[in-house]
Amino acid sequence: MSRIGLLSILFSDPISFVVIAIGLIISVTIHEFAHAFIADKLGDPTPRYQGRVTLDPRAHLDPLGTIAILLIGFGWGKAVQFDPYNLKDPKKDIALIALAGPVSNIFLATILSLAIGLLNLNGGIATILVTIIFINVMLAIFNLIPINPLDGSKIAQALLPKSIALEYEQFMHRYGTFVLIGLIFPWGGSGSPISHLISPIIDFIVGILSLLWMI
Fold it and tell me: Domain locations in the chain?
């Protein structure tokens, strides 16, 4: 995540700062909208009543998460609330709602990659799109980590056997946020553990998408 380093480029390259900040805001908005949209389609009107089934960034940006975006290069949106009692199959539907966010980011990254290749884009426009592609892939993979409050924890609960899932949920509810914070921040001079874990996956997916740029 530190690879974006928004704060470090604010004064040295303000144009890049603006491009990356906008890309992050778009990515977070798409991500949270997807959660709300799927929850609504699965029968829970809660996100619609709260005004979350919209692509207006103001409905999805979390103040602290937005500050984190500007300071450390990644952050989070306002969590989409839903009522599991309105879902027909809560275990499966909750996993689908959680998965919708990362899938939406990969989908957007794929569409933008196709646009670069099919429209033969290059120069500044291509650079901006590549930046947004990377951000979306990063956001998707980061959120698939099975640690609460990330989407991956809800997906893991749906996949685990019932007895293990309950223990996992209780542990994550109590300690997940602390575990996540501990893994996000750098350990010594070697960078954060999460960065080491997901960077190769991000690079692999971006590498595949880059093949579409040459269509």
Answer: 6-214
